[in-house]
Amino acid sequence: MLDDRFSSGSGEWLGPNGPDNDVVISTRIRLARNIRGHKMPWRSNQCERQEVEAKLKSGIADSQIIPEGAYWSIDDLSETERRLLVERHLISPELAKGRGSRGVIFAPTENLSIMTNEEDHLRIQGIHRGLQLEETWRVTNQIDSVLESRLPFAVSSRWGYLTACPTNVGTGLRVSVMLHLPVLVHTDQIKKVHTAASRVGLVVRGLYGEGTKASGDFYQISNQVTLGRDEVQILRDVRTMVLKIIEWERGLRKLVMQQDRVTMEDRAWRALGTLQYARKMNSEETMQHLSSVRLGINLEILHDLGQERINDLFLYTQPAHLQVLRGAPSDPEERDISRARLIREWLA
Amino acid sequence: MNLCQICGEEEATIKTIDIVNNVKSERHICEACYNKQGLSQPFSVPNISDFVKLTPTSAQIDLQGLGELVKGLTNPKPEPTVPNIVCENCGNSLEEFHKRGVVGCPADYDLFCEEIEALVSRLHGATEHVGKVPREIEAERARQHRAKQLCADLECAINEERYEEAAGLRDRIAALTHDSDSPLHETSRRDRDEHAG
Predict the structure, then answer these.
(1) Residue B28: exposure state from Cβ atoms within 10 A (0-12, 13-18, ≥19)
(2) Would you say the pTM of this structure is higher than 0.90?
(3) Going by fewer Cβ within 10 Å, which terminus of chain A is more open, N or C?
(4) Which of A229, A253, A277 is at the close of a domain?
(5) Taking CB atoms and an 8 Å cutoff, what residues of chain A touch B142?
(6) CATH classification at residue A49
(7) pLDDT of B11-59, one tens digit each?
(8) B140 touches chain A (CB under 8 A)
(9) Same domain for A268 and A246
(10) CB contact under 8 A, B130 and A228
(11) Are B103 and A164 in contact (CB under 8 A)?
């Protein structure tokens, strides 16, 4: 069972003052690696996965890369705890669904996590607040190099790092920047983001990555190409696109504030009012209102609210967090009542 | 995308294998050329309408039986016969790779090399890694790069009839390739075996 640290506070990456944090929530970098001479997790039986997991655990422990981190086996976690780790972006939905000889180790700051026996044997992930591509890459790359000196990674001079899915082969690198784009959505120009991203080999994903939908005006921009471009080029591609999107979003925010300020004010105050007084609220509605309040803070319409508080609410109103904080309201209506109560208390 | 080796314009979707005098040759061609060239008929078999025309009284022919007989020989779109390769290390088959789109172990990258090359070329627009690699691979890459350079110099020396210099270059290339025990433009077999485990 996970300790009770999750009942208060978010990971450092959700904290305030990240670079460009009016638009960028976080920067995440993931590296996919496999161990030479072993079958991929999907092809392995329990015994083989166990053998790989033991190798990985000892490699991670010996290298002292996350000295304060504990290893959590997925089998030892309840469904709510697994969901909670997904909500905190510490594990992927895919790892949460799996069973037997797979797990995660993460730093107490939650800036770093390493998953074992997910789609690949190892998934190393670094995550930082705001737009911090270089710093996130530096940390993740360092961890990778340390592990590489202890674990025999499967790699070829032609294909690079060999991954279970050829979509990740080569660098095994996925760079994802999470963006808050309420005005691009409001002005119906989000398609422009999708089109521009796809033209340069990038993809727009939902809140929890591949296969998840956008919620509360949050989008992740990620690279698709992992072969034939090196890490520096991939980071540069993502940076160029993200800076362009930030410029669009900021430009439109300025424009709507000049042309239709009252609509923006109404949206922010109405959302805050609903959050402060509603008695029942589902997850999707909460995300929408929190998104409007976050925008209101960034447009300096709402002054007395800290962005940190709102960021925490994004996390703590998610189903698993709500269950951990408020017992286990399994009934959806009960959960909506519980969520509304939590928001009222936090905003009081 | 692999282009048809006959017309050079359409995507090659069919692989033909001819064995003549125990010599095997492969061709990758498009469906149109496959049909146009009559490659579906390895030896001349009249189609059913020709057969009917040639016969004095069509009523005497059991058309249904004939149809069955020639179907196998004149089928205009036979399924190309691709052997279902199975990996000795992980048991993953080519068929399963096509179905799931994931490899069963690192060795599959060599075993299903052609299919993976076609797939990654579509996915990434490239078929060679250019980023970070572990130190031992980095040394191997540097050696390959050096050998490539020497090959270019060798070609130049031969064209300019500097044969003495060319001989020296040839020896240096041989020494480099001997050291690495690998072809210049491919992943080394030794690498592959090591990584396959």
Answers:
(1) middle
(2) no
(3) C
(4) A253
(5) none
(6) 3.30.590.10
(7) 777 766 654 544 556 677 777 777 666 544 333 333 333 333 333 333 3
(8) yes
(9) no
(10) yes
(11) yes
